[in-house]
Model the fold of this input.
Amino acid sequence: MVTYVVRRFLLAIPQLLIISIVLFGLMQAIGDPISTLGARTPPRPEEKARLRRMLGLDQPIHIQYLVWLAGNDWLLLDMDGDGVGETPGPRRGILRGDLGNSLVTRQPVVTMIAERLPNTLLLMGTTEIVIIVFSLAIGVYSALRQYSAGDAVITAASFIGYSMPVFWLALMMMYLFAVNFKRWGLPYLPTVGMYDPAVGAEPVEIARHMIMPVATLSIISVAGYSRYVRSSMLEVLHQDYIRTARAKGVREWWVIFHHALKNAALPFVTLIGLDIPFLLAGAVVTERIFAWPGMGRMFIDHVDRSDYPVLMGILMFIALAVVVFQLLTDLTYSVLDPRIRLN
Amino acid sequence: MAPVTLPSAAESTDRTAVVDLGLKPLSPTQLAWRRFRRHKMAMAGLATLVLLTLYTSLGGMLWSRGYCAPIRATLSGEAWANCNDTSLKLQPPSREHPFGTDVIGRDIFARTIYGGQISLLIGITATILEVLLGTAVGSLAAYHGGWVDSLLMRFTEAMLTIPSLFLLIVTAKFFGGRLPDVILFGRELTGSVLVIILIIGATSWMYLARIVRANVLSLREMDYVAAARALGVSNARIIITHLLPNTFAPIIVSATLGVAGAILSEAYVSFFGLGVQVPTASWGNMLESAYKYLESAPWLWFFPGMFILLTVLSINFVGDGLRDAFDPRTR
Done:
C-alpha cells in the first residue's frame, strides 16, 4: 500500500512537469503583461525596460521557466541595466512553495489563492453534497421504477439539464427567482455576491446567496450522474445475489440500500472522485455570473491582465488537486471493493 | 461477410436446400438504422436538427432583410444582421424585430440565423479536427506500443489533468488575433472563428484518443491483422483499412456528442469575450455581456441560449440513439 502510494506520487512528478512546461509555454504568449500596467500614464520605453528587468521578463523563456520552477535567489540579477549582476534574486520557485508575485497586485500568488480558496471550497463542497444526495436518490428511484412515467419524466429532464449551457441556466434562474419573484412581491433571492455588505457575512446571508449558484452547478451535474447511477443500479438489480437476497425474504429496502446500492455506488465513487477537482474549475462561469469571490473568478480577472504567475499558480494548484484526487479515488475504491488489489 | 442462412434452413438437415425467400440479410448499417429509427427521442432530435439547419440556411434567404436607417438602404443577408441602428437599441420583440434588438440596435432574429451558421460550422469542423487528432493519437499509440505509446499517453493524461475550460481560455488568449480573415462559403469570417475551431479541436481529442487506443489494442492481436502483416501490408494501411473501420461505432458516437460539446465550448469561450469577435455573430458571443441586461432586456440572452440548448439537446438525443443502435447491449 505504502509503496503503491509512493510510486504513484513518483509517477505524478513527470506528469506535472509536462503540464507545467506546456502551460508555461502558452503563458508566454497570452499577451504582454507590461502593456497592461500603468493605467492612466503609459510608462516610457526605458521604464518598461526597467520593469521587464525587475520582473525577469527580459530573460529567455527557458530561464524564466527555471526561475519559476526553482527560484533565482542564488543568482545575481542585473537591475540597473549595466550588464553586471548585483542584486540577489527574490524568488524561491514553485518547488519551494513560492508561486511568485502577481504582476498586477504585487501580492504573493500563494496568499491570493489562499484568500479565494475558502470561498470556492464552500461553494463547491456544498454543491458536491447536493450532487451526491440528489444523484443517488434520483438514480435509484428511476432504476426501481424503470420505464414508468416518473422515469420517463426524469430521463427527459436529465437530458435537458445535461444539455443546458451553465450561464443560460444561471440567467434563467436569476430571471425567475430574483427578478420576477421581486416583481410579483414574493420572497426573492439575491443575484450576485457572497453577502450584502449592509447585512454582513452572516451564515444565513451567505447561505441565501449560495442557493442559486449551488442549484445551477448541481442541476447540470445531477442530470449526468443520476443516469449513471440508474444504469449501474439496473445492472446490479438483475444479478443473482439480489434474487437470492429476495428469496431469503430480506426486506426490500434492505436489499436495495444494503445489497444493491453498495455495489452500484462503486463506479459512482470513481466518477465523483475524479470530478471533484474539475468542479473546482467548472465554477469559472458560475462564479463569474453570480459574482462569487472565488478562485475561478480570480482566474478570469487575471487572464485579461495577462498576469501569468497567478494563472500558473491556479492551474498548477488544480493539476495537483486532480493528481491527488486520482490517487485518493483509487485508494477508496480498493477499500470499498476488496476484489481490487493495488500493486 | 459470411453468407447468412435463414433459421428454418439452418435447422433442416439438408444443407443444400436453402430456401430463398427473396430476403437479403441486412447489413450492420441497415440493422443499426432500423434500431435507430425505433428510438423516438433520437428521431425527434434528428428532426429538430434538420429544422435548425433549415432555419440557419434558408432563413437567411427568406426572412433576413430589412431597412437599415443609418445607411439608408434595404439590406439583406448578413449585412442586415450586422446593421446597427442605435436609435433602435434594446427594443423588445415586435413585428419588425421578432426577437428584439441588441445593445447597438441590431436585429436579434437575423443574428440568430447568421450566428447559428457560425455555431454549427464551429461545432462540426472542430469535431472533425477532434476526430482526426484523437484517432491519429489513439491508433498510433496502440499500434506502435512501446515508447510511442507511453509518450503519447503521458501527454494525453497531462492534457486531461487540466480542466478543458481553463485550457480553452488560455489557448484562446494565446491564438487570439493571430489568424487572418478568411472567405468560406462566400462569407468573410473573422480569423477568430478559425482560432475557435482550432482550439476546441486541440483541447477535446483526449477522450476519443483513449477510446480508439483501447479498441485498437484489442483488435491488433486478432488473427486477420497478423495475416495482413504476414502479407507485407504497410502499417499505415493496416491501421486505416483494417483497424479503424472496426472502431467506427464508438468513434461516430463520440463524434456526435463531440459536436454538442464543441458548440457548448464555443459558447463558453465567447461568453468570456475570447471567442468569435464581432461583427460576426455566433450564438455564444450574442450572450456575451447580455447578462448585464438580465432584468431590462431578457430577449438579449433568451433566444441565443434557447437555440444553443435546442441544438445541444437534439444532438445528445441523436448520440444516445446511435449508441443504442450500434451497441444494443448497452440498453
